[in-house]
Amino acid sequence: MSRRIEIELTSKREDGTWTWRAAGAREPKGVVDASVVPGGASVKDVLRAEVETDLDGTRVLSIQPPKQKTARTGLLELIPSDKPFEPVTQKLARKERRDDGKRGPRRDRPAAKDGEKQDRPQRPRRPHFETPPEVPMRPKAKRLRAGRAHVDAVLADLPEAQRAIAEKVLSGGVPAVRAAVEQQNKQAVAAGQEKIPADGLVQMAEQLLPRLRVAEWLDKAEGAQKIIGDIDLRDLRAIVVASNDPVIARDESTRALADAMKSALTKRQDEETKNWLDDIQAATKVGRVVRALKLSSQPPKAGVPFPPPLAAQLAAATTAALTIDAPADRWIALLEAAAFSPVRLQVNPVSPSSAVSPELTKTVMRLAPLMPQIAALFGVVVDPKAPAPRPLRPQRSDKPQGKKDAARGDRPPRQPRPADGARKPAGGAQKPAGVTSAPVAPEDAPSAPVAPAAEEAVAPETVVDPAVAEPTAPTE
Questions:
Q1: Do 250 and 221 belong to one domain?
Q2: H or E element that contains 202
Q3: Residues 300 and 352 in one domain
Q4: Residue at 84 is within a domain
Q5: How far apart are CA 221 and CA 245, in angstroms?
Q6: In a domain, 122, yes or no
Q7: Closest CA to 342 of 394, 379, 294
Q8: Same structural domain for residues 311 and 380?
């Protein structure tokens, strides 16, 4: 296959041929016939050539003559003038001062006539939300990472034939051993082999289970003891609950450690409860109402009583934040946080003055079973038997969404199907169960009473709802 390169003519022989080489290099090089070289060429000329390389070397097929520079035409000729040079001067006009001390007339409105006073148009004020000061956050609790010292010691004492069964017991208990035997027997029948007796293997798994369960609990308890001051309460609570297992409780090696875990859990719960209330107090004091509401719905232990004075303060701050001129996004954020807090029934704002956005109406309809007073403010009727909604899952911005997440978007959670098995009608969006909307214009909305005094707004027996406060915490 031919290619184009630049060659340099190095010499002219007596027989009329020319020697050449690649421009700026020693190789490739060769000899070219004079008939290929364009006329007027001389030694050291650099030309564009088309060459072909094979086993015999590089041959020049053709050489293009160098491009001739064209003369520039169409230039303008500058003819000097005999007139004397006269410089140009510039003088700026002085600006007149107005009565208010500023310079120049106003150009955004017509000038006023003599004896008339010009009215300045009043621009509508936009709602402005000032960001509250930041509150330092506490370090995140450490999750438990248990070792395998006791489990490995038990496995090392077992015969080689029993270790595989012990590993199955650790992964899924005795049911995992039965499932593995059944699967192996199915493969044996398909291959024409005899079945393995399952009774003996299951009995062996039941005998190994107590030792493995104690060893596994000891590994977790000793791992928790190393970070007892920073461990997550969920992990510590799970260890304490597991210590009540009869297999673990009757073992002498676990009694002292189980008592230490119970004492540590009691101490940590008291400390976390105090920190929890202090964080809510601090966030409410600086104006971080959304953060305070979210913290109030996440107690360190389900069923912790919420102090009535703090509840009154938080409810008053939430009601004050839901102002008439607040934007719809502010209303949505506050309502989503307040709906799952222990003060949700004490929030009594005034209906917004501007037109209610579809997103705000959708939020009020979803949260209507938890906040009926807000639903009545927007003209939404709530069925007393309607199920309570769940909190929205936070969206992670640093993680790319998959196809299912991108298609789902901000779709509200699926509502449970009614008991009669009825489905939603074809076409149209489905409303939350038990909620019927009757939107009311902002000027026609019923006026809500102002939040009462602190001593009258909160009942002394205000308690965090366990079903809302800590849905993922293990029960004791």
A1: yes
A2: helix 198-226
A3: yes
A4: no
A5: 14
A6: no
A7: 294
A8: yes
φ and ψ of 5, to 5 deg: -140, 170
19 phi and psi angles, rounded to 5 deg: -100, 145
What single-letter amino acid sits at 106?
Answer: R
Domain of residue 458 covers: 287-391+432-476
* CA angle 56–57–63, rounded 5-degree value: 125
Taking alpha carbons only, the member of 450, 216, 189 closest to residue 316 is 450
Calculate the alpha carbon distances from 448 to 117, 338, 363, 373 in Å: 43, 17, 19, 9
Mind listing the pLDDT tens digit for each residue in 259-314?
999 999 999 999 999 999 999 999 999 999 999 999 999 999 888 899 999 999 99
Q: Coil, strand, or helix at residue 411? A: coil
Q: What global pTM score does this model have? A: 0.54
Residues 165 and 248 both lie in one domain: yes
User: What pLDDT was estimated at residue 77?
Assistant: 80
Which structure tokens are listed for 155? Answer: 């496995």
> At which residue do the structure tokens 């059944």 appear?
182
Same domain, 227 and 364: no
Say yes or no: 259 and 307 in one domain: no
The answer to whether residue 419 scores a pLDDT higher than 80 is: no
Cis-peptide into 28, omega within 30 deg: yes
Does residue 81 lie in a domain region?
no
Are residues 180 and 243 both part of a single domain? yes
Q: How far apart (Å, rounded) are the C-alpha atoms in residues 251 and 253?
A: 6
Place of tokens 């005094």: 453
Residue count of the chain: 476
378 and 438 within one domain: yes
Q: Write out pLDDT tens, residues 14-51.
A: 888 888 888 888 788 888 888 888 887 888 888 888 88
Q: What is the DSSP string of 134-159?
A: P-PPPPPPBPP----HHHHHHHHHS-
Residue 101, both tokens: 């001390």
**Calpha distance 462→241 (Å, rounded):** 28
Question: Between helices 308-321 and 289-296, what is the axis angle to 10°?
Answer: 140
Mean pLDDT of the chain: 77
Q: Examine the pLDDT at 409 and tell me if it is beyond 60.
A: no
